[in-house]
Amino acid sequence: MAFKDLQHYLQELDARQELKRIDVETDPVLEITEIADRTIKAGGPALLFSNVKGSAFPVAINLFGTMSRTCCALGVASLDDLGTRVQALIPTPGLPSFGDTLKLLWRLKDFRTFFPKQVHAGSSQEIVSREANLLELPVLKCWPRDAGRFITLPLVFTRHPETGQQNVGMYRIQIIDGRRALMHWHVHHDGAAHHRGNRKHGRDMEVAIVLGGDPAAIYAATAPLPPGLDEMLFAGFLRSSPVEMVPGATVDLMLPAHAEFILEGRVSASECQIEGPFGDHTGFYSEAEAYPVFHLTAITRKKQPVYPATIVGQPPMEDYFLGKATERMFLPLIKLQLPEIVDINFPCEGVFHNCVIVAIRKEYPGQARKVASALWGMGQLMFSKYIVIVEDDVNVQNCSEVAWKAFCNVDPERDIFLVRGPLDVLDHSAPMPLYGAKAGIDATRTLKEEGHSRTWPAQVEMDANIRELVTRRWQEYGF
Ligand SMILES: Cc1cc2nc3c(=O)[nH]c(=O)nc-3n(C[C@H](O)[C@H](O)[C@H](O)COP(=O)(O)O)c2cc1C
Ligand SMILES: [Mn+2]
Q1: Burial 336-371 (b: 16+ CB within 10 A, else e)
Q2: Which of these is catalytic: 5, 146, 230, 280?
């Protein structure tokens, strides 16, 4: 099912008894974070705060805070179904039969119907205000040492300065005052690239900060798509129906027709201010650093909008579940390049960029190193600080099993290999920002050709016949 907008999704959560309304007054400064954090850690419902101190607008949070809610948001029964849907887009290897070709053409024709579609009028522009004030929004101050209030679930729309293609990324926004904010797009992300492209020519850039929209569009803003692939097309694919768009009121951008709020404005080519610190998704505060200034030109909104938010901090938080959706969806695409990969896991403690666990079907010497090197060359996987490679008899989703095998199999000198390269902005362990060391950990059985002259021991396992006999006799033993 495709949700029309955020409020449609909230209605569905309510019907599933996965939405809790909180009607007593709550403070967007720290108090909502503490309530949301406790709820997320307990696997609790989405929350709708109707009476937020200092603002006329309600706050919705924890929209993606469990596996089942993330599935609901993306219209699937299990996250693996997302992988299956992506897999179906990939042609079968070898020479396709006539039937396969027809099926592929049919799918591509289908795909064309997912392109964002312009509509006449949108509820996101029911009210258009050129004098609006950012301080009217119930923006959270999440953690005690945060530098101020941050918009935490924004879809940031920009246009490529040469190709004109639009990009959508989720980059948090720090409010400076009623008319100005700071754009925290990391240097590696598409919004920052668009800004650099404009800055080269001394041009300011039009930007829209979209709050709300249907949950598939919100997810799509976080998806690590290659530059040039429109996140709203991807959202259309996820919801099996195009995202409806309208032209911005004061910016030359096509924007979701059914968002809750849209903050339109210009980002200066040259003006920067210190952004942060901010309690980040690593569970640590990210450093204060200079980021470009956004100048508001208009706020458009629904008559009765709901302000969407999330909090990040010590994992697991909501972003863990968004990351799991990405893990399942992108696995078939990774396998396309690396067919020996059986499964992949971004454990929550690894906060995406710190740890990836991969299971491979190992067939030749050096294969684990090849897989790690390839992953370090693939999009946002370049940030992976530790890549742990195990064989396909290990369930990568079971971290205890992975740790056991890795501790037993790895010779530290031979099987841990270091490389240097780009690092995530949020890696605070590196001696300098953005560049440093990453480690591959080859926990596969070491082959003779890899310099292991001893025999590799067999794993302790019970005889299948005995297992079957004991199962058969279990009650007889008196259990
Ligand atoms: C809750 C949440 C907050 C995020 N905050 C930021 C941020 O402040 N800056 C940033 O560059 N990326 C942030 N990200 C990650 C990007 O949204 C993500 O890497 C996305 O793929 C970037 O899109 P792009 O490739 O189109 O730039 C955040 C992700 C989530 C889920
Ligand atoms: Mn992008």
Answers
A1: eebebbbbbbbbbebbbbbbbbbbbebeeeebbbeb
A2: 280
- Residue 150 neighbours by CB under 8 Å, 6+ apart: 139, 140, 141, 142, 172, 173, 174, 175, 278
Q: Which ligand has an atom closest to residue 170 CA?
A: 1
pLDDT higher than 70, residue 96: no
State pLDDT tens for residues 198-219: 999 999 999 999 999 999 999 9
Beta bridge partners, 81, equal none
Q: Which atom of ligand 1 is found nearest the CA of 185?
A: 11
Distance CA 149, CA 158 (A): 23
How many residues are present in the chain? 479
Tokens 């299948």 belong to residue = 464
Over residues 240-266, the mean pLDDT reads 98
- Mutation test residue for ligand 1: of 189, 230, 321, 434, the one with most atoms within 8 Å of CB: 189
User: At residue 263, does pLDDT exceed 80?
Assistant: yes
The predicted pLDDT at position 112 comes to 79
- 163 CA distance to ligand 1 middle (Å): 22
